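TICKET: design request
STATUS: open
ATTACHED STRUCTURE:
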């Protein structure tokens, strides 16, 4: 199998920002990180906030922690802190350096040298360079974020266009309401059955109405093995159409059995498969049609 790990996944793994982190775990990870890592964490959270609610909430808490209004203010503040830290560190190193003239009574005059342009404008150049790097990094991550958001929007659009058939839970079973030739008919959903079943008396009603006839719609005689293990003979008929929820299916094979009561019809998987690609969500009492 091809290893399809994106640059975004690699950054998440390196920074420890997994999907399972709670809002406060994300905040603690940010607090414990160095200034450099904080800049990377903020840039990554800016991407993840569009698709993961915990990172969106964590970003709001980070704003409150740093006392800023948005990401621009936060990046500016962190960049300033990083620059101040470097300056303080340099000053401390200079104070700790030994003075070569401390033990000597004779001091040699050192000629003054005019500092270079870089030394005179070092702080300004560092700030500008830092912002430039952050801008490039943010632009690259932002482009990846837009693609991710667009992909998620397309997936959401597909899900929204899905339809479903409502199941009626009763006595530990799931029932499906249908309409056959204008007659409301209820089936019990049986995912272990291959074919739907009806009674002989129900078939005769549709024969009398002219909806089906033995000449046009009778297919064959067949035997079926019931859940009890008994083999039962049945006639297989093809119904022209059945309306199930918002969908109408056509040329549906149904087994007609003599021992079936009018309130004991079963809907098997051959009928469900006529609906197309489906997902049976028993916990939410739905047959979802993609």
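STATUS: resolved
RESOLUTION: sequence designed for all positions
ATTACHED SEQUENCE:
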């Amino acid at each position: 199998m091809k290893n399809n790990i994106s640059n975004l996944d690699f950054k998440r793994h390196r920074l420890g920002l997994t999907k399972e982190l709670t809002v406060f775990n994300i905040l603690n990870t940010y607090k414990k990180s160095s200034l450099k890592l904080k800049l990377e964490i903020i840039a990554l959270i800016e991407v993840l906030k569009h698709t993961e609610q915990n990172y969106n909430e964590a970003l709001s808490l980070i704003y409150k922690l740093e006392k800023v209004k948005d990401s621009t203010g936060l990046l500016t503040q962190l960049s300033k802190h990083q620059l101040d830290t470097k300056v303080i560190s340099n000053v401390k190193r200079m104070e700790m350096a030994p003075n070569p003239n401390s033990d000597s009574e004779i001091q040699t005059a050192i000629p003054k040298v005019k500092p270079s342009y870089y030394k005179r404008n070092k702080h300004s150049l560092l700030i500008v360079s830092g912002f430039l790097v952050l801008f490039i990094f943010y632009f690259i991550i932002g482009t990846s974020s837009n693609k991710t958001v667009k992909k998620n929007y397309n997936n959401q659009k597909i899900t929204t266009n899905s339809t479903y058939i409502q199941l009626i839970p009763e006595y530990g079973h799931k029932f499906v309401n249908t309409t056959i030739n204008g007659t409301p008919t209820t089936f019990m959903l049986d995912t272990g059955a291959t074919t739907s079943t009806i009674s002989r008396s129900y078939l005769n009603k549709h024969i009398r109405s002219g909806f089906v006839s033995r000449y046009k719609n009778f297919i064959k005689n067949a035997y079926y093995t019931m859940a009890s293990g008994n083999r039962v003979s049945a006639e297989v008929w093809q119904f022209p159409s059945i309306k199930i929820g918002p969908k109408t299916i056509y040329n549906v094979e149904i087994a007609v059995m003599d021992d079936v009561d009018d309130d004991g019809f079963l809907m098997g998987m051959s009928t469900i498969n006529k609906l197309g690609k489906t997902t049976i969500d028993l916990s939410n009492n739905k047959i979802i049609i993609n």
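CLOSING REMARK: Residues 165-289 form a domain with the Cathepsin D, subunit A; domain 1 fold (CATH 2.40.70.10). The chain has two domains: 7-94+125-149, 165-289.
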